[in-house]
Amino acid sequence: MRLDWVTRISLDNLRPLLSLFSAALAIDLGTVNTRVYARDRGIVVNEPSAVALDNRTGEVQAVGKEAKEMLGRTPGNLRVVKPINDGVIADFKVTEKMLKYFIQKAHQRRTLVHPRIIISIPSEITQVEKRAVTDAAYRAKAAEVHLVEQAMMAAIGAGLPVTEPGGNMVVDIGGGTTDVAVISLSGIVYSRSLRVAGNHMDEAITNYLKRKYNLLIGERTAEQIKVEIGSAYTLDKPLTMEIKGRSLIEGRPKAITVDDSEIREALSESVSTIVSAIRMALERTPPELSADISDCGIVLAGGGALLKNLDKRIREETGLPVCIADDPLCCVVLGTARILIDFKFLRRILIE
Prior knowledge:
Shape: flat
Number of domains: 3
Strand order of the largest sheet: 3-2-1-9-10
CATH class of the largest domain: Alpha Beta
Order of helices and strands: HEEEEEHEEEHEHEHEEEHEHEEHHEHEHH
Oligomer: single chain
Strand content: 25-35%
Structural class: alpha+beta
Distance between the termini: 40 Å
CATH superfamily of the largest domain: ATPase, nucleotide binding domain
CATH architecture of the largest domain: 2-Layer Sandwich
Largest sheet: 5 strands, mixed
């Protein structure tokens, strides 16, 4: 049927309005960073999961990068909250405010947008924790909310052939959780979620320096040490780093120099726990899929995959080929984004 020019003008005027309500977002709600992918526009938000609040009024003063910059430096009337702890919501109200801010930012501050949202979550969180994620998204003005497993999204984002009848093993090491999964035929054959990941490593470094050198350091410094000289296996070239903190004995600023072997010792327990989880997954994988994994190997995703020589350590322990995904930091959100337009596949992998 032909449309007359009046009808065409009406439809053209309606399209911008309709697009507000049909907007779709993929969200990787991470302990350390939250990433948002907007359909047709790519990753539009990639910021720390942090919110700065006014203690007196409870009002939000900053979100994301600006809030993280305040960490450890706030005056008495401000506090920085990390509302996601170990992959789950620790502060419901703050998470709601943070999600609302990121959703509006993804849509250029347009307040009328009520998007369909797909959120990736760890595999072993409880029904109560799942409900908290869903409720927070709805209260942040989402029109629809769907939950999917992080491990599956990491595998899709890494480009693994998850729909084929073959075994794919992915290890997603985030800030709060490490998800180990074996995937075949669009389903998870085995999965395990550990609350040992990047933040746990930072704490291990903080405790090591406190115990050995009586030096107190902040979260940002611990993370910087992990990134710059942290490793899971002996490095080809030794590294050292000057660390500044506060002496627990003298109570004044103090600087020390540590090398990579000391930080590797501090991280040894965390790394061993992750390696043990991988070995357990291999032991519980059906024989046919084990054969596939022995050929294709293990894929590492998440920020923790960038820990120096972690792939070499896992290769040494398992005897299997290990590779790091092309974009490990964004694997989960890219995987979630790929199912934004594939409703049929989405229905097959939905958690709820």
